Amino acid sequence: MSILLVFNRHPARFLAALEAEAPKCAVHVWPTDVDPSAIRYIVAWKPAVGIIERFTQTQVIFSYGAGVDHLLLDPGLPKGVPIVRLVEPDLTQRMSEYVLLHTLMHHRRMTEYLELQRQGRWHEHWEPVTQDVRVGVMGLGVLGRAAAEKLRMFGYRVAGWSRTRRAAEGVECYAGMDELDAFLARTEILIALLPDTPATRGIIDARLIGKLATNPDLPGPVLINAGRGRLHVETDVIEALNSGALYAASLDVFEAEPLPAASPLWQHPRVVITPHNASNSPPAGVARYVLEQIARHERGLPLANVVDPAHGY
Ligand code: NDP
Ligand code: OXD
Fold first, then answer.
1. How far apart are CA 253 and CA 133, in angstroms?
2. Among this protein's residues, is 228 annotated catalytic?
3. Could you say which of 33, 115, 245, 250 would form a disulfide bridge with 240 (CB–CB 3.0 to 4.6 Å)?
4. Where are the beta strands (DSSP E) in the chain?
5. Is 102 a catalytic residue?
6. Which of 31, 40, 35, 28 is nearest to 295 (CA)?
7. Which of 106, 134, 228, 232 is flagged as catalytic?
8. CA torsion sign, 11 to 59 to 31 to 20?
9. In the structure, what pLDDT confidence band is assigned to residue 52 with cuts at 50, 70 and 90?
10. Which residue lies with its CA nearest to atom 43 of ligand 1?
11. Higher pLDDT, 147 or 1
12. pLDDT at 170 over 90
């Protein structure tokens, strides 16, 4: 069994993890002069366009992350070869941590307290009780459902929005464009955990932000985007923050990454920026996941978490 790793930088930790889990497996790292017809499986993260198509005997392409937009950008991706996305417990846990951390941060007005601290000022802000704060999660997939569950357990009033109808205990579920406005009208803290697809790109724009609700005990709505940068229109988010249409934001993902030094988001007092690390893929967990899926595939069993190219996720 031959596996090829095609990453945008050397995947040293993942290579070590794969070799530890499967010492007999032949693992090659791109660039390599291995005979292309020997490769059966590819694990990729942001591969340059045109590499994957050279390996014509590939049976499965694995995304090193939950998102697959980085793969689907390549027009030469072989048709009919399944793409498997990452579903891994530690990745899910970390994303829930990020969502809870940043929801609490804005609900408890921490960006304002940090500013007061810098000024050496002692001043108390009014903060709503958790049970009165309405959080809405866009994307009720693996990560969105887990985050919604943690928020609910913490006491927030939680809703979720997805493409198809979903059900989650204690979560008000909305589906499709027809129900988007109703979802937004009851959402004070908006969490974006959607994939980047033609249907979701630019969905968080000035119009959408204008439809969010404001908690009476907070200065305005909050945006937390840990999905993909292309979900939000950056100029609209900046304008909304400046006008007060948005009170605050936590952004882990951006239209251009790294976020350019000139972006006003860096300096905005109500914005928390993280470098696309809301949830990093754990090398050992990914190695086990990939090897388990390969073992299933080689026994003739169906692969799990296969991407639907028609929907782009
Ligand atoms: P899933 O595929 O499990 O879930 C995607 C969710 O988005 C589903 O609920 C789906 O609806 C919904 N959705 C997709 N398209 C639409 C649409 N047009 N309208 C409404 N809802 C839509 O993905 P995950 O939960 O595993 O991951 C979500 C995203 O998080 C990834 O694609 C990735 O971009 C991002 N991510 C970011 C990380 C970071 O560190 N910042 C780390 C990991 C992931 P339905 O349920 O009906 O299918
Ligand atoms: C992912 C990511 O998609 O880290 O897993 O962005």
1. 24
2. yes
3. 245
4. 2-7, 26-29, 41-45, 60-63, 83-84, 134-138, 157-162, 172-175, 189-192, 222-225, 248-251, 271-273
5. no
6. 40
7. 228
8. positive
9. very high
10. 66
11. 147
12. yes
Q: What is the pLDDT at residue 177? A: 98
Q: Whose CA is nearest to atom 3 of ligand 2?
A: 67
pLDDT in the model for residue 29: 98
Reply yes or no on whether the pLDDT at 1 is more than 90. no
Task: Give yes or no for residue 140 CB within 6 A of ligand 1.
Answer: yes
In this structure, which long-range contacts are made by residues 159-167, counting pairs with CB atoms below 8 Å and at least 24 apart in sequence? 159/134, 159/135, 159/183, 159/186, 159/187, 160/136, 161/136, 161/137, 163/199, 163/311, 166/140
Question: Is 67 near ligand 2, meaning CB less than 6 Å away?
Answer: yes
Q: What is the mean predicted confidence (pLDDT) over 42-62?
A: 98
| Residue located nearest, by CA, to atom 1 of ligand 2 | 65
Bridge partners, 160 (sequence order) = 137, 173
- Kindly report, residue by residue over 234-276, the tens digit of the pLDDT: 999 999 999 999 999 999 999 999 999 999 999 999 999 999 9
